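Notebook entry, structure prediction.
Reason for the run: the old model in the group folder had no record of what sequence produced it. Starting over properly, with the input documented here first.
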Amino acid sequence: MGEIEDVVLRCTGSEAVRVRELGGGDAGTSRSVLLADGRQVFVKANPPGMPGAVAAEAASLKWLAEPGALPVPEVLGDDDRHLVTEHLDSGSPSPVAAEEFGRGLARLHAAGAPAHGSPPPGGPADAWIGLAPMRNEPAPDWPAFYPEHRVRPYLRRAVDTGLLGAEDSALVERVCDRLPSLTGSDEPAARLHGDLWTGNVHWSGGAAWLIDPAGHGGHRETDLAMLALFGCPHLDRVLAAYDEVHPLADGWRDRVGVHQLFPLLVHTVLFGGGYARQAVAAARTAPA
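New structure, fully documented this time:
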């Protein structure tokens, strides 16, 4: 019996009949597995050297599913490297599904978190966003959490590797220093997906499912900024429906670039200098 077949048997109690490799994703491999009892499951295998990644993702999925605001694949089991969940067929986004996604995301955020930076219950403090380490450390508010545990760790790495110069680094630092005056409102910690780019919104069965989360407590505008970063189908409808359920604070659109600093700096370190230019451009959009 192979490794995947063994993992599936332990997690589901049923033997694998067929294993099929799936494409996509940069953090390991994905497989669709047909079981002897007729079920189909999804198996994600992380590469070595990512301690806590599976535990963090499993805890995130369970935490996001808890309020029942949006569909989330059920976690069937996990070990140090493998995560087994229910399998999702692929569908196409529709305007109706996009609007329901926006309303559901608003309800999910409103379910809240213990603190900005808090990990999901049972999740490790040292988590991951894709192939990048990500520290979840509770803080009194978002301006205290975001620069210290999101922006500055990757800003330092970008500078140390020569991807960002001193002048650009100073610009980002000035934005970090000004965060208390940029937040727009003193909102409680939201229950965030944490890596909500369009590839982690899976359209299936006429609905938008949340996959591959990096869940934590944070500012709700962060998830919305991630949706905008690489484009999301029917984004205007998503945002309008969200705003109907959980109205956004004045000036939120002006802060999108501030919330995009972290993922852009992560991409800078992982994939190179083109993202460094985008990070600097995002910093320049911060409200005066």
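Summary: DSSP finds ten helices and eleven strands in the chain.
The old model has been moved to the deprecated folder.
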